[in-house]
Write a structure and sequence with these properties.
Belongs to the peptidase M13 family. This is Peptidase, M13 family. Keywords: Hydrolase, Metal-binding, Metalloprotease, Protease, Signal, Zinc. This protein has 683 residues and is α+β, with helices and mostly antiparallel strands. It has two domains: 302 residues, Collagenase (Catalytic Domain) (3-Layer(aba) Sandwich), CATH 3.40.390.10; 181 residues, Neutral endopeptidase , domain2 (Neutral endopeptidase, domain 2). It is 52% helix and 8% strand. The chain is built from 27 helices and twelve strands. A four-stranded mixed β-sheet has the order 1-8-9-7, with helices on one face. Strands 3-4-6-5 form a four-stranded mixed β-sheet. A two-stranded antiparallel sheet has the order 2-12. It is globular and about 75 Å long. The protein binds zinc ion.
Length: 683
């Protein structure tokens, strides 16, 4: 799963992690009589809406939809994800079948990349030889200078090292790009896997040791036990030195700009000059360090690990990063550890799915352009624009009416709201892949070329004006995001399908689905971290002290509320880790309900399928969250995912909203009931 990392990752906040298969397609057609869009067939009639709004709406589906063997979880996102996957497969097959493709053309790249992934005869023959040169370079390191230099060149190839960087708008000068340096370097999903002594983590650490030894033996190591020991020692140190995910969320604490001299002083024994030369960043004069104390500890300890230990660590990370692209023995070992042990997945995906996912990663906008042509309807964009306007209007009214905020802060909040921009469907300017060379017979070579291409594209941004047309998700992605340094909300084409967005349905279910998603993304601009940025994308405090204190108090209440939810026996939601997303959900659904109400212009909502518009809206919200998880995956997400598990997103949000109580006549004694003083209202 940590195949060659996507380098240009910003700090955009997404809606949810889409993962993973077949369901009847609901045709997106404009009908004369609008349907409700409520999928009553999924209801569990034995559960009352007033007792658990997730199971009442989704219970039948959850009980009757097994997780496919090649997936860690399965829900509404997954169904659309599979639809995108099938669409891309068709596009790739059609493209590959075209005769006489010009060398370097989009068609050649799409056809040949897929062919290189599917050409298992060549891949088997090559074994791990595509990595021989780099393994040889690592073996030749003589001193710590060489190790620093190797880290630079490996990072350019997309290999994980103890830290990474990306280029994004400078959060304190958002009209310029800056380099952000961040902690990295672990194989297990989170630092706590190394630091906690629960049986599960002890077992995961043992599994890591076995995995390292096994895969390095396959890669020709004569000392694979020693390699495993080196990896364990270095990664344990890294885990001890890292900031927690909660600490790393803090937008102010993780903004520490320094020039090269200051950075070198911080990383003491690590030769940043040597590293920069091989990483091709020797001309970068300033960096923003996200976790300074981590870099200090890393620098101090760097020379205390021997050259041999670092060689082991780097060789393993090279092999691990590329394992999925090598022969079957590597693919199998990688799957057994990363997917089976850590996520509970039973079977490997069919190879064609791996190849399609890889195409989405490497040449996503080349296939995306065709995806949009074939699957995206312009009328969807039009209706989305209307919904976005309605949500912004709803937010405007909400801010005006907030009882806890002073007029001064309200003015500043309205200013920020007025500066939101949005993108729908697909980029107006497509990414230029001219410099990416793809061949049909060398998968690892293609990935190396891709990693270098992405890396160069990223560095080329420095010193240039901000590219406001850039997208951080492909159009075929089932997700959405808010980018705080651009103050923009972005909705790829693939999320504009039922149950999120139903062209054939009445507005109510759409306000509860995609409307609340729009509201969620806008609310990220006003969540515990997003609210630290102004409308121009700069970290600038626009709050009065009293308002900030009240905002934080309400956030703490919401955090405590979610921390009360037990997702697995003895394992609760991390209220602080998920606070931004929970504020996003609460603000999003609250404002969606308000926007729907405003859209009625004082008329009562139409009743369809025996449900009022207000009821359909909330059901629309709950039905997008149906999802079954494997226990391993849910446990992993509780520690690493900033989103709450689906159950609590679906039921935890509405129980804070008065309109939900009215819509379903929720009363004291009902399990969804919260006493008015325990309900959290933020936006
Ligand atoms: Zn979000």
């Amino acid at each position: 799963m940590n195949r060659v990392s996507k380098l240009a990752l910003g700090i955009a906040l997404s809606l949810g992690l889409a993962a993973c298969s077949n369901e009847t397609t609901t045709p997106v057609v404009q009908q004369i009589e609008k349907v409700s869009g409520v999928e009553k067939v999924n209801f569990d009639s034995s559960v009352r809406h007033q007792d658990d709004f997730y199971y009442s709406v989704n219970g039948h589906w959850l009980a009757n939809t097994p997780i496919p063997a090649d997936k860690s979880n399965y829900g509404a996102f997954s169904v659309l994800y599979e639809r995108s996957q099938n669409a891309l497969k068709k596009i790739i097959d059609e493209t590959a079948a075209k005769p006489n493709k010009a060398e370097g053309s989009s068609e050649q790249k799409v056809g040949d990349f897929y062919a290189s992934y599917m050409n298992t005869d060549i891949i088997e023959k090559l074994g791990f030889s595509p990595l021989s040169d780099q393994l040889g370079d690592i073996a030749q390191a003589k001193d710590h200078q060489d190790i620093a230099s190797l880290m630079g060149s490996l990072l350019v190839s997309g290999v994980q090292i103890p830290f990474g960087f990306y280029v994004n708008n400078d959060a304190k000068n958002s009209t310029q790009y800056a380099v952000y340096l961040h902690q990295s370097g672990l194989t297990l999903p989170d630092r706590d896997y190394y630091l906690k002594d629960d049986d599960k983590f002890v077992a995961n650490r043992a599994a890591l040791n076995t995995y390292v030894a096994d895969i390095m033996t396959q890669a020709g190591s004569k000392n694979s036990e020693r390699v495993a020991d080196s990896v364990a020692k270095i990664e344990t140190f890294i885990a001890q030195s890292q900031w927690s995910r909660v600490e790393s969320r803090d937008a102010n604490n993780s903004y520490n700009k320094m020039d090269r001299a200051e950075l070198q002083a911080k990383v003491t024994n690590f030769d940043f000059v040597q590293f920069s030369a091989s990483a091709d960043i020797d001309k970068v004069t300033e960096v923003i360090v996200r976790q300074p104390s981590y870099f200090e500890k890393f620098g101090a300890k760097f020379t205390q690990f021997s050259v041999a230990q670092w060689q082991d660590y780097l060789a393993f990370h090279l092999v691990d990063s590329y394992a999925e692209l090598l022969s079957k023995n590597f693919v199998d070992l990688h799957f057994d550890f990363h997917s089976k042990t850590l996520m509970g997945i039973e079977e490997q995906k069919p190879r064609w799915k791996m190849a399609v996912d890889a195409s989405d990663q490497v040449i996503g906008e080349l296939v995306g352009k065709e995806y949009v042509k074939q699957y995206f309807k312009p009328e969807a964009k039009q209706r989305m624009e209307g919904l976005i306007q309605a949500l912004i209007k709803g937010f405007e009214v909400s801010i005006d009416e907030i009882e806890w905020m002073t007029p001064e802060t309200k003015v500043a909040a309205q200013e920020k709201l007025a500066k939101f921009t949005y993108k729908i469907g697909y980029p107006e300017k497509w990414k230029d892949y001219t410099d990416l060379k793809i061949t049909a017979d060398h998968l690892v070579g293609n990935y190396q070329a891709y990693a270098k291409f992405e890396y160069k594209t990223m560095l080329d941004k420095l010193g240039k004006p901000i590219d406001r047309t850039e997208w951080h998700m492909t159009p075929q992605t089932v997700n959405a995001y808010y980018n705080p340094v651009m103050n923009e909300i972005v909705f790829p084409a693939a999320i504009l399908q039922p149950p999120f967005f139903n062209m054939g349905a009445d507005d109510a279910v759409n306000f509860g689905g995609i409307g609340a998603v729009i509201g969620h993304e806008i609310s990220h601009g006003f969540d515990d971290q997003g609210a630290k940025y102004d409308g121009d994308g700069n970290l600038r405090d626009w709050w009065t002290d009293a308002d900030r204190a009240e905002f934080q108090k309400r956030g703490a209440q919401l955090s405590a509320q979610y921390a009360g939810y037990e997702a697995l026996p003895g394992k609760h939601v991390n209220g602080d880790l998920t606070l931004g997303e929970n504020i996003g959900d609460l603000g999003g659904l609250t404002v969606a309900a308000r926007a729907y109400h405003l859209s009625l212009n004082g008329k009562p909502s139409p009743v369809i399928d025996g449900l009022t518009g207000e009821q359909r809206l909330f059901i629309g919200w709950s039905q997008v969250w149906r999802r079954n998880y494997r226990d391993e995956e849910l446990g992993r997400r509780l520690m690493t995912d900033s989103h709450s598990p689906s159950h609590f997103r679906a039921m935890g949000t509405p129980r804070n909203i008065p309109a939900f109580y009215q819509a379903f006549d929720v009363k004291e004694g009902d399990k969804m009931f919260l006493a008015p003083e325990d309900r959290v209202k933020i936006w």
